[in-house]
Here is the input.
Amino acid sequence: MLSKPVFPVEPWAVRESTFDPAALPQTESVFALSNGHIGLRGNLDEGEPHGLPGTYLNSVYELRPLPHAESGYGYPDSGQTVINVTNGKLIRLLVDDEPFDVRYGTLRQHERLLSLRDGYLRRTVEWTSPAGKTVSVVSTRLVSMTHRAIAAICYEVRAIDRPARVVVQSELVANEQLPAMSNDPRAAAVLTAPLAAEDGELHENRALLVHSTRRSGLRVGAAMDHIVTAPGDVWTGMHGSEDTARFTATVRLEPGQSLRLVKFLAYGWSSQRSLPAVRAQVEAALVGARATGWDGLVSQQRAFFDDFWARGDVSLEGDPEVQQAVRFALFQVLQASARAEHRPVPAKGLTGPGYDGHAFWDAESFVLPVLTYTDPDAAADALRWRHSILPTARDRAKQLQLDGAAFPWRTITGPECSGYWPAGTAAFHINADIADAAIRLADATGDEEFERQFGIELLVETARLWRALGFHDGEGKFRIDGVTGPDEYSAVVDNNVYTNLMAQRNFRGAVDAVGRHPERAAELEVTYEEVVAWRRAADSMYVPYDEPRGVHPQSEGFTDHIEWDFANTPADRYPLLLHYPYHDLYRKQVVKQADLILALHLRGDAFTPEEKARDFAYYEPLTVRDSSLSACTQAVIAAEVGQLDLAYDYLGEAARMDLDNLANNTGNGLHVASLAGAWIALVAGFGGMRDHGGQLSFAPRLPTGLQRLAFTLCWRGRRVKVEITGSEATYSMVGDGKPVNLVHHGRSFTLAILGPVTFSIPPIEAGTRPTQPASREPVSRQRGRIIQSAR
Here is the structure.
């Protein structure tokens, strides 16, 4: 955790006002720019110093071996790791032959500003060289949302007090040397020089490099072009080698004069296209960017974000820190997905190499709910990617001697990349999570064509998997044994409640989709017997219940285990997986992240209010939140059962996860699902939004720290705005659209464009605030804000 706040609180920006080299790994992630296709870490223009250089293309990876101490059937023998591709961010500056380096000379001003409204990163510097020449530098960087293959930088250097000859060197560099990573399994493997040169071309202001990965056989093209504006005669030149291209511009500046360099970057890659085709792709993108120009790119970027914020903004009163954080969160979720276009949403987005760049279940369970209601096209694209890897998932199911499709626990392009079965393949719930996302998108958009082309096949193949994985016992109950739920501190268990209930939803969703699209079902060879079996399995799904304790065990027998010794676990021994053996974790009552509690949220229709309150109170003292995915879910259920201030504390943790580096690993990349969780905590938590059975409902309540909350949701072609205060909620339609049926605290009503509808918020009686494991309490938002104000 950063020892002091790095970023001043602002509603529409994240700003670093002073330079702290120790914070570089974190700030490089926070200031990362992406469009879902290209990702640029927030490294300094000159490249040094750095925490971790990073330029990524979605799904560009290298293969690496996955050694096993003892091999086993079905273990993958190869993994995939995201690689740092050709770096085009580099722009070096020399002032009278002295390199601009923040570690030398005098740094008089250094500010970086991430504009959440405009979608760019701006850096402002004033620096005096060791020889006493002072210059200012203003660098503005963007990754275009409207030109998928393009990034651009406007770099302006100005002489301040004395004449100076400035030299600007703009580079493309492949196979950068990377620092060693930690032994933390959440970090990435480091691959040395993964790119082999294939082609290069240099022109006056333009350069192109084409490389291929040595094992995975992917071809990557990168190109740059430049426009230089300066007084007097400017000398320019281009030089290069297999792995580098350098454009140089130099001019003598009098005080007050400036040199302005606009750098256009284009990236493209393919696993199939030829070298000439990739070259042509990159060159065409570069020409398009050059024709649009810097001002055009900036204008288009602002228009793109204006449109997103109009439909996706969340505004609140009472907590400026959370306001900044939730907008930062939405900004980063959008960056991770907007132009991914049939590619995955990795756990770290394209902000760092953490988790080897893999996508997990959290994309469907945390990120896609946000996109479904704010950018449904991006959610559909993410599910199209899942659909595209169905052949690999079917092959995996066959290897596991199962029917249907078994989606990978972690992957980049489809193959299973988890080398640890208990917390990998055994977590079959990912298949129901994908189905859940497909059902939610169909309900929220009413897009029958998407469901017919993509959704139904996802539902059918995952339903087939569950039918093969489970069985009816002697009492007729449908059991699913030997699986791992969301809590990775309990593994290979029987009848995990979350898994069973999500599989039930999967079965019913498949039955309903087959009924809506009989012709497509016939193409998928769905039989009447299958549909009957799915319906029977759903209706007889076994959900364990501990009668003596009056709670649901997370999995069968879980509540009979001995509790972890929380009182004698030092605070510095968390996360537990880095300090204790799994055999100790697996046999005790300790919860890494919300599991049964997640079931209360996503399958809340399967529980009574009394059951939710008892379950929440039982699992709070057992949940250590060693995963960033936990706090937002705990916030949602805390709010539902009336523990509003506790929910507020969890909201703060989810929302500030990366801005405050709460997990001490933001340097490996942002926690995109936790960022999505900030939206979930506000909208599903304090907004009480649920979408069970295709019915959009709300049960809003605010904590004492918030005076107002407002958000807009996309729902079946309409935009529904919800405004909440401490005493009432107002619903209105934004723009045109047919009336929509909604529910407020159990009361159905019809919302039309004629005007807003306002309801009072009924009170709720909450029980005693539950406790958490020793040293694992969330930071109090109320207390933290008092301390912050005192500063």
User: Anything to note?
Assistant: The chain is about 30% helix and 25% strand. The longest helix spans residues 275-312. The CA atoms of residues 176 and 183 lie 21 Å apart. Residues 1-5, 786-791 have pLDDT under 50 and may be disordered.
